[in-house]
């Protein structure tokens, strides 16, 4: 995209093209997947995970992350 010399770029813009034109799409998809992965599970499941995490000496978030990374329960 060529810069029009009659109109100066906005504040903070260096006048060049975007370095990665697909970056906004990838970040949108990542945010959506992240939100879906960390969606609050039903109450019974959350309580069960919390109890198991406390048994293992972990926080709920650490335990949930292990489940998501490994795909199996500890």
**In angstroms, what separates the terminal alpha carbons?**
52 Å
Largest sheet composition: none
Contiguous helical run count? 3
Cα gyration radius (Å): 22 Å
Summarize the structure in words.
Helix 2 crosses helix 3 (60-70). The chain has a domain at 40-74. It has helices at 23-37, 43-56, 60-70. By secondary structure, it is mainly α. The mean pLDDT is 81. It is built from three helices and no strands.
Tag the structure with descriptive keywords:
about 70 residues
Topology:
Blueprint (H helix, E strand, L loop, with lengths): L22 H15 L5 H14 L3 H11 L4
Helix pairs in contact: 2-3
Summarize the structure.
This protein is an all-alpha fold.
